[in-house]
Structure prediction request, 82 residues.
Amino acid sequence: NGTISSKFIVVPGGYINDDGQFNALGKQGIWWTSTTTLNLNGATYDAFTSPAWSIYLNYNSGSVLQTSNNMQDGFSVRCLKN
Prediction:
C-alpha cells in the first residue's frame, strides 16, 4: 500500500492463475497494460498470439517490473477517467 509521484495508490490484489486459484492477495499487484500490442525495440508483440505485457509490484520491494504473462491469468486493471 503506497503511492508514487503520479498519485497511483497501490493495493496488492494478487492474481488468479489459469487454474482459477487466487494467489498472493495482499502481497503482489499485477496490472495488465492498456493495449493488446506492444512495440519494443522494433519488435511488435500481439497479446492474442504471444504473452501480454503487465506491470508487477511486490509488497516488500520498491521496484516496478514489466513482465509478460499468458492471457489466461487474471490480473488487476486500472480504470482512468478522461
